[in-house]
From TrEMBL:
<dbReference type="Pfam" id="PF17432">
    <property type="entry name" value="DUF3458_C"/>
</dbReference>
<dbReference type="InterPro" id="IPR045357">
    <property type="entry name" value="Aminopeptidase_N-like_N"/>
</dbReference>
<dbReference type="Pfam" id="PF11940">
    <property type="entry name" value="DUF3458"/>
</dbReference>
<dbReference type="InterPro" id="IPR038438">
    <property type="entry name" value="PepN_Ig-like_sf"/>
</dbReference>
<dbReference type="InterPro" id="IPR035414">
    <property type="entry name" value="Peptidase_M1_pepN_Ig-like"/>
</dbReference>
<dbReference type="InterPro" id="IPR014782">
    <property type="entry name" value="Peptidase_M1_dom"/>
</dbReference>
<dbReference type="InterPro" id="IPR012779">
    <property type="entry name" value="Peptidase_M1_pepN"/>
</dbReference>
<protein>
    <recommendedName>
        <fullName>Aminopeptidase N</fullName>
        <ecNumber>3.4.11.2</ecNumber>
    </recommendedName>
</protein>
<feature type="domain" description="Aminopeptidase N-like N-terminal">
    <location>
        <begin position="29"/>
        <end position="182"/>
    </location>
</feature>
<dbReference type="InterPro" id="IPR001930">
    <property type="entry name" value="Peptidase_M1"/>
</dbReference>
<dbReference type="InterPro" id="IPR027268">
    <property type="entry name" value="Peptidase_M4/M1_CTD_sf"/>
</dbReference>
<keyword id="KW-0645">Protease</keyword>
<comment type="function">
    <text>Aminopeptidase N is involved in the degradation of intracellular peptides generated by protein breakdown during normal growth as well as in response to nutrient starvation.</text>
</comment>
<dbReference type="GO" id="GO:0006508">
    <property type="term" value="P:proteolysis"/>
</dbReference>
<keyword id="KW-0031">Aminopeptidase</keyword>
<comment type="similarity">
    <text>Belongs to the peptidase M1 family.</text>
</comment>
<feature type="domain" description="Peptidase M1 alanyl aminopeptidase Ig-like fold">
    <location>
        <begin position="440"/>
        <end position="534"/>
    </location>
</feature>
């Protein structure tokens, strides 16, 4: 398959100002009639080209007259048109109930729904399926009234009626021109939780969360989050909602989290449904964040869309940045920042360091679905954050106002966004643009020297840009680093916080009046998405963990201390745990700290993140080093873990920042108690498991048990399974918890679970709950005999036949062979080669696997 290149972008030859779509809906055979008004763009003498995939073409007419001199060129329907404006009508037949890819129109749980981003609309009808063709949509849906009592589409409802023969119809109009990827319809038997939102200019918007009748009691949190999001976007970005209705539909079969279709968001049910008994605090947070994210897309994505898919981060990076800001404002901003950085390090740093590394604005792709990545989303958000930091809050807001105003109703580029940042602030972002074009995680070496006699501190910084595929050499970036110095003797701040823009390959900062030995706090708040290589001693890191006034820097010092300790242990078997134990003890004992922060700060870095620090990952050594430190911490701070465990106030479940923090700390403490090998640990976990009135505690207890071999383990897993046998989202947790287990037999257990009657590759959540979790389990997946690799490859080959997008998303753990010893590397490569050689392989999986072999 051929690569598509950014440099080849050409504006569309034809515009489609209006489209009228008529759906005669039936799961086995749906007839789609599309009437397009088309207008020549410019003077070029180009035929009209309409994309189509898996469509059975029935008729084509031009200006009301059936024609047969159309032709197919590959997947495109090509029509030569004499004039500059015409009306084209096509009629096609599609089979939603055989659509296992879940792109286009498909069936889920007896209902019909759509997913069009990026290129699913062409699986519904023939159309120029590219984001820079914006049209006004008029949609008519006709369906069986008993099976599909609810008929929804984008925009506002305009009419509905009876169609006879037990069928009915509804018409929807979306007055805002939009690209085809934002089209959506839903037909089904759904219940609704309705709400209202009055915008700041006084318009009343009807809100609806649509789910199966049985799930209606679990929609309140999502509806509440939607209202909060609508208010937040008005207050923080001055963005008001624009239609009279805003609907969200939850479906069980969905390739990713959710989709921002104009006025009709469609969600993976896991990001809508919540009640204390079935959803964890993490789920509640994620629901609010995704509801906000999709809502915010109404401006950053829908009103202003992307010119081409290379600009994807224009909407995704910015919208992630916006949803991160929203979540930070709902609770602890410090803890939110820590979670986001942990996510970036878990997903994006490895991507940037591996064979699939790509810039935030890529230059080419084979299959665009493969580019919905942590780089586009999360690193993209970090780019926006850096610009916000460099501009300051007022200029940043002026710049986003300018952007929204200038590009409203258009398909824009990343360059357009950066240009607005420059224009509104007067700040030159010429060098900053490299963040969009250069892949890889920058590293900054930082050291500090002190001349006690002169009272002078000298900070030396040097940046390094590691090579990535296709980019062997890179230019220096502009790296915004927030810095502050603290006095090692007194513990007080010696300077104010300073924002230093590192633009050159190396720089020196001299600070005078430094009368005691300074300790460097750098990249505070994670002001740049880089790795800091500093030679700070364990003592200095422990000092910062105690005294730094920036909560992120404090957390970071603790993480670095743990990481240094664990890396030394994994490489040299040297296990000096004292500094970590002291720092954790101090943190636990500090009454001024928020329990949610404490829980984050005392958690050890993941095995994967420790592995990322090593030239060659030894998964067993990493695991044992980490377990040894966990056990030691568990034993030596036994009393403190017990008090932390007991400190959580009793009382019924409440989803408040304070209660969440206590539950989080309780789960972390339980993990350490279990790690200590205490005789009563399993009993403690089991009694929490049984008495918990919420899923957060119950799942925390189950995870602690799942890692061990106490008799309570099986019992808890069985109880959990039986209790939630009819709840797919909770069963996903059951699969996932076992696949993440640190037990020696996890590989075998996972292979058995793949044969479990409740396991299916047809449901993406279920596939991810087992295969995604297993791929993330560094030690189990990387079993030295290659059994983990073989298993994943078998599953991916099977999944690819059903759902290429989801298969491709689960592949990256197999591509990390360069990071492992020659035996493992050879075993991984053999599986990648087997995948690439599979007949009928999708473009999606081919691109991921073949690039991973290079
Ligand atoms: N824009 C969608 C993602 C579509 C993914 C297509 N493979 C959801 C989001 O980012 O909000
Ligand atoms: Zn998005």
């Amino acid at each position: 398959p051929a690569a598509i290149r950014r440099a080849d972008y050409r504006p569309p030859a034809w515009a489609v100002p209006d489209i009228a779509l008529d759906f005669d809906l039936d799961p086995a055979a749906t007839i789609v009639t599309a009437r397009l008004t088309v207008a020549r763009n410019g003077v070029a003498d180009e035929p009209l080209r309409l994309d189509g995939e898996a469509l059975e073409l029935l008729t084509v007419s031009v200006d009301g007259i059936a024609i047969d001199d159309w032709r197919m060129e590959g997947d495109q329907l090509v029509i030569d048109l004499p004039g500059d404006a015409h009306t084209i009508e096509t009629k096609v037949r599609i089979a939603p109930d055989r659509n296992t890819q879940l792109m286009g129109l498909y069936a889920s749980g007896g209902n019909l729904c759509t997913q069009c981003e990026a290129e699913g609309f062409r699986r519904i009808t023939f159309f120029p399926d590219r984001p820079d063709v914006l049209s006004r949509y008029l949609v008519r849906l006709t369906a069986d009234k008993a099976r599909f009592p609810v008929l929804l589409a984008n925009g506002d409802p305009i009419a509905a009626g009876d169609a006879g023969d037990g069928r009915h119809w509804a018409e929807w109009r979306d007055p805002f021109p939009k690209p085809s990827y934002l089209f959506a319809l839903v037909a089904g038997d759904l219940a609704v939780n309705r709400g209202e939102f009055v915008t700041r200019s006084g318009r009343t918007v009807q809100l609806g969360i649509w789910v199966r009748q049985a799930d209606i009691a679990r929609t309140e949190h999502a509806l509440h989050a939607l209202k909060l999001s609508m208010a937040w976007d008005e207050q923080v970005y001055g963005r008001e909602y624009d239609l009279n209705v805003f609907n969200i539909v939850a479906v069980d079969d969905f390739n990713f989290g959710a989709m921002e279709n104009k006025g009709l968001n469609i969600f993976n049910s896991r990001y809508i449904l919540a009640d204390p008994d079935t959803a964890t605090d993490y789920d509640y947070d994620a629901i609010a964040a995704v509801v906000a994210h999709e809502y915010f897309h109404n401006w950053s994505g829908n009103r202003i869309t992307c010119r081409d898919w290379f600009q994807l981060s224009l909407k995704e990076g910015f919208t992630v940045y916006r949803d991160q800001g929203f979540s930070a404002d709902q609770g602890s901003a410090a803890v939110k920042r820590i979670e986001d950085v942990r996510g970036l390090r878990a997903a994006q740093f490895p991507e940037d360091a591996g064979p699939l590394a790509h810039p935030v604005r890529p230059d080419s792709y084979i299959e665009i679905s493969n580019f919905y990545t942590a780089t586009i989303y999360n690193k993209g958000a970090e780019l926006i954050r850096m610009m916000a930091t460099i501009l300051g809050p007022q200029a940043f807001r002026a710049a986003t106002d300018l952007y929204f105003e200038r590009f409203d109703g258009t398909a824009a580029t990343c360059e357009d966004f950066v240009a607005c940042m420059e224009e509104a602030s007067g700040i030159d972002l010429g060098q900053f643009r490299r963040w969009y074009s250069q892949a890889g995680t920058s590293r900054v070496a930082a050291s500090i020297a002190h001349d006690a006699g002169e009272g002078r501190a000298t900070i030396r910084l040097a940046q390094h840009q590691p090579p990535t595929p296709g980019q062997p050499e890179k230019a220096a970036m502009v790296i915004p680093l927030k810095l502050r110095l603290f006095g090692a003797e007194t513990g007080r701040a010696l300077t104010d916080e300073q924002l230093f823009l590192l633009k050159d390959p190396a720089a020196t900062i001299v600070v005078d009046d430094v009368t005691e030995r300074p300790v460097l706090s750098i990249n505070r708040g994670f002001s740049a998405p880089v790795v800091i290589d500093s030679d700070r001693s364990a003592a200095d890191l422990a000092f910062l963990a105690r005294h730094d006034d920036d909560p992120f820097a404090r957390y970071e010092a603790m993480q670095q201390l743990m990481l240094d300790t664990l890396v030394a242990a994994a490489i040299e078997g040297r296990a000096d745990h004292d500094a970590v134990v002291d720092a954790v003890a101090d943190t636990l004992a500090n009454p001024d700290l928020d329990p949610a922060f404490v829980a984050e700060a005392v958690l050890l870095p993941s095995e994967a993140f420790i592995g990322d620090q090593l030239a060659i990952v030894d998964p067993d050594a990493v695991f044992h080093a980490r377990e040894a430190l966990r056990r030691d911490l568990g034993k030596r701070l036994a009393d403190q873990w017990r008090s932390a465990y007991a400190a959580a106030p009793d009382g019924p479940y409440a989803y408040t920042p304070a209660a969440k923090g206590h539950r989080r700390l309780r789960a972390v403490a339980l993990g350490y108690i279990a790690a200590s090998g205490a005789a009563d640990a399993a009993g403690l976990a089991f009694s929490l498991f049984e008495s918990a009135d919420n899923m957060t505690d119950r799942q925390g207890a189950l995870s602690a048990l799942a890692n061990g071999d106490a008799g309570e383990r099986e019992a808890a897993l069985d109880i959990f399974y039986n209790r939630y046998a009819d709840n797919g989202l909770v069963l996903d947790k059951w699969f996932q918890t076992q696949a993440l287990s640190s037990r020696d037999d996890t590989g075998d257990v996972v292979r058995q679970l793949a044969e479990h009657p409740d396991f299916t590759l047809a449901n993406p959540n279920r596939a991810r709950s087992l295969l995604g979790a297993f791929g993330a389990n560094q030690r189990a997946f990387n079993a030295a005999d290659g059994s983990g690799y073989r298993f994943l490859a078998d599953q991916l080959i099977a999944l690819d036949k059903l759902n290429p997008q989801t298969a491709a998303k689960l592949m990256p753990p197999l591509g990390r062979w360069r990071r492992f010893d020659p035996n493992r590397a050879a075993l991984m490569r053999a599986e990648l080669e087997r995948i690439v050689a599979t007949p009928g392989l999708s473009k999606d999986l081919f691109e991921q696997a073949s690039k991973s072999l290079d």
